[in-house]
Amino acid sequence: MTPNETLHGARAELIAAAQRSARWAAPFPPTDDGAHAASVLVLFGMLDSIPARTDELTVAADLDVLLQRRAATLSSHPGQVSFPGGRREEQDADAVATALREAEEETGLDPAGVEVLATLTELPLAASNHLVTPVLGWWRSPSRVVAVDHAETVEVFRVPVAHLLDPDIRFTSTISRMGRTWKGPAFDVDGTIVWGFTAMVLDALFDATGWTIPWDPTVERPVTV
Questions:
Q1: Taking the CB of residue 194, how many other CB atoms lie within 10 A of it?
Q2: Taking the complete model, does pTM exceed 0.85, yes or no?
């Protein structure tokens, strides 16, 4: 029996996965000394087309996840798909406060509608030298979301989890720099490529929840920055 066989519903599976998140940090390249603290909001909500269900009856295929595409003019991770989030500021009480503040500023979501399930183990984001705390959220009362500041975010979208789990859209991304090649999980969402840190978090979370459908990691595609 797998650990998730005794759980009831997607929400319970996400919470159980969060409790094991310390195991996820190993594959992430380490940062340098003096890395900046940051948070992202990994927010799951019910698909608009799904009738209201209790938490215990809600399954992964009933959910979507909130993502955004960063402006191509940004100095850090330009044009990439990401979770809402950003660097911790002095007024933020904790990682949760950072994630909710940044999500509201970037997408306009109402933080009051978000149930925070857990904070995951902080993960190093070597490319921009940040230590990032993923904040796992359950969207109790979804609010309208848009790209608030087009200088930072050009698109905000909700992607069905069932689509992300489809083996046909999954592949291994490759990026070559300074004579080295890095590989990682990636998703082709109708032509929009989710790769890098965001894809690694989704991949690890789907594995930890037991939601992953086997896919072929030998299928490789280069990504450009």
A1: 23
A2: yes
Band of residue 3 on the pLDDT scale cut at 50, 70, 90:
very low
Q: Write b or e for each residue in 20-52: b if 16 or more Cβ atoms lie within 10 A of its Cβ, otherwise e.
A: ebeebeeebeebeeebeebbbbbbbbbeeeeee
Residue 99's nearest CA partner among 113, 84, 117 is 84
Pairing relation of β-strands 170-177 and 153-160? unpaired
Give the SS3 label for residue 165: helix
On the question of pLDDT at 5 being above 70, the answer is no
Distance CA 161, CA 217 (A): 19
Bridge partners for 136 per DSSP: 42, 118
Element spanning 194, H or E: strand 192-194
